[in-house]
Design a protein that fits this description.
By secondary structure, this protein is mainly beta. It has one domain. Helices cover 5% and strands 58% of the residues.
Protein backbone atom coordinates (compact mmCIF):
# COMPACT_ATOMS: atom_id res chain seq x y z
CA UNK A 1 0.00 0.00 0.00
CA UNK A 2 1.22 3.49 -0.82
CA UNK A 3 1.50 5.89 2.10
CA UNK A 4 1.07 9.65 1.90
CA UNK A 5 1.30 12.52 4.34
CA UNK A 6 -0.44 15.86 3.79
CA UNK A 7 0.80 19.06 5.39
CA UNK A 8 -1.39 22.18 5.61
CA UNK A 9 -0.69 25.66 6.95
CA UNK A 10 -3.39 28.31 7.16
CA UNK A 11 -3.64 31.81 8.59
CA UNK A 12 -7.00 33.54 9.08
CA UNK A 13 -7.78 37.07 10.19
CA UNK A 14 -11.36 38.24 10.56
CA UNK A 15 -12.97 41.34 12.01
CA UNK A 16 -16.17 43.30 12.05
CA UNK A 17 -17.49 46.59 13.42
CA UNK A 18 -21.11 47.60 13.96
CA UNK A 19 -21.80 51.29 14.40
CA UNK A 20 -25.20 52.52 15.59
CA UNK A 21 -25.24 55.92 13.90
CA UNK A 22 -28.73 56.79 15.16
CA UNK A 23 -31.91 55.14 16.40
CA UNK A 24 -32.78 54.30 12.79
CA UNK A 25 -29.40 53.85 11.06
CA UNK A 26 -26.95 50.97 11.60
CA UNK A 27 -23.63 50.82 9.72
CA UNK A 28 -21.30 47.82 9.51
CA UNK A 29 -17.87 46.98 8.21
CA UNK A 30 -16.28 43.54 8.08
CA UNK A 31 -13.31 41.82 6.48
CA UNK A 32 -11.53 38.49 6.23
CA UNK A 33 -8.11 37.34 5.07
CA UNK A 34 -7.06 33.72 4.54
CA UNK A 35 -3.62 32.49 3.46
CA UNK A 36 -3.45 28.73 2.97
CA UNK A 37 -0.78 26.35 1.73
CA UNK A 38 -0.92 22.59 1.51
CA UNK A 39 1.22 19.84 0.07
CA UNK A 40 1.61 16.09 -0.05
CA UNK A 41 4.97 14.78 0.93
CA UNK A 42 6.55 12.40 -1.56
CA UNK A 43 4.95 9.01 -1.15
CA UNK A 44 6.60 5.66 -1.36
CA UNK A 45 4.96 3.51 -3.99
CA UNK A 46 4.74 -0.23 -3.34
CA UNK A 47 7.05 -2.59 -5.14
CA UNK A 48 5.25 -4.62 -7.79
CA UNK A 49 6.28 -8.27 -8.16
CA UNK A 50 8.46 -9.03 -11.19
CA UNK A 51 5.91 -11.43 -12.74
CA UNK A 52 3.40 -8.57 -12.92
CA UNK A 53 5.79 -6.12 -14.57
CA UNK A 54 6.95 -8.82 -17.05
CA UNK A 55 3.36 -9.17 -18.30
CA UNK A 56 2.68 -5.41 -18.52
CA UNK A 57 5.60 -4.06 -20.49
CA UNK A 58 3.96 -0.71 -21.25
CA UNK A 59 3.29 0.12 -17.58
CA UNK A 60 6.51 2.01 -16.88
CA UNK A 61 5.07 4.81 -14.73
CA UNK A 62 7.02 7.57 -13.05
CA UNK A 63 5.37 8.59 -9.76
CA UNK A 64 8.13 10.99 -8.68
CA UNK A 65 6.04 14.16 -9.02
CA UNK A 66 2.53 12.85 -8.36
CA UNK A 67 2.57 14.46 -4.90
CA UNK A 68 2.69 17.95 -6.46
CA UNK A 69 -0.74 17.57 -8.09
CA UNK A 70 -2.55 18.25 -4.81
CA UNK A 71 -0.37 21.16 -3.69
CA UNK A 72 -2.23 24.37 -3.04
CA UNK A 73 -1.29 27.95 -2.26
CA UNK A 74 -3.88 30.67 -2.20
CA UNK A 75 -4.81 33.89 -0.47
CA UNK A 76 -8.36 35.16 -0.18
CA UNK A 77 -9.45 38.62 0.94
CA UNK A 78 -12.89 40.14 1.30
CA UNK A 79 -14.21 43.37 2.75
CA UNK A 80 -17.84 44.39 3.19
CA UNK A 81 -19.60 47.61 4.09
CA UNK A 82 -23.31 47.90 4.74
CA UNK A 83 -26.15 49.95 6.13
CA UNK A 84 -29.60 49.29 7.55
CA UNK A 85 -32.24 51.98 7.90
CA UNK A 86 -35.09 51.06 10.24
CA UNK A 87 -38.50 52.21 8.98
CA UNK A 88 -40.46 50.52 11.78
CA UNK A 89 -39.75 47.85 14.42
CA UNK A 90 -40.39 45.15 11.78
CA UNK A 91 -39.32 46.76 8.47
CA UNK A 92 -35.84 47.94 7.40
CA UNK A 93 -34.12 48.96 4.18
CA UNK A 94 -30.71 47.37 3.67
CA UNK A 95 -27.76 47.98 1.35
CA UNK A 96 -24.28 46.47 1.30
CA UNK A 97 -21.30 46.01 -0.97
CA UNK A 98 -18.60 43.34 -0.77
CA UNK A 99 -15.29 43.06 -2.59
CA UNK A 100 -13.70 39.59 -2.99
CA UNK A 101 -10.15 38.86 -4.16
CA UNK A 102 -8.57 35.42 -4.67
CA UNK A 103 -4.94 34.76 -5.55
CA UNK A 104 -4.39 31.11 -6.52
CA UNK A 105 -0.73 30.24 -7.02
CA UNK A 106 -1.07 26.48 -7.71
CA UNK A 107 -4.20 25.66 -9.65
CA UNK A 108 -3.43 22.08 -10.63
CA UNK A 109 -6.96 20.67 -10.63
CA UNK A 110 -9.16 23.45 -12.05
CA UNK A 111 -6.48 25.81 -13.31
CA UNK A 112 -5.41 29.05 -11.68
CA UNK A 113 -8.56 30.75 -10.39
CA UNK A 114 -7.08 34.12 -9.52
CA UNK A 115 -9.54 36.99 -9.77
CA UNK A 116 -11.73 39.49 -7.99
CA UNK A 117 -15.34 40.66 -8.06
CA UNK A 118 -17.84 42.93 -6.34
CA UNK A 119 -21.29 42.11 -4.98
CA UNK A 120 -23.79 44.92 -4.34
CA UNK A 121 -27.11 44.12 -2.67
CA UNK A 122 -30.12 46.12 -1.59
CA UNK A 123 -33.23 44.87 0.07
CA UNK A 124 -36.12 45.14 2.43
CA UNK A 125 -35.96 43.23 5.71
CA UNK A 126 -39.31 42.23 7.20
CA UNK A 127 -39.57 40.70 10.65
CA UNK A 128 -42.42 38.39 11.65
Amino acid sequence: MAETEYQNEAVLFSGSVLFLASDRLNLNLSGNYVDSKGALKTGEMPQVPQEVTDNIAAADYDFSSINQYSDLAYAQFDVSVGAEYVLSPRVSLTADATYFDLTDDKGYVYGVETGSFYVVRTGVKIGF
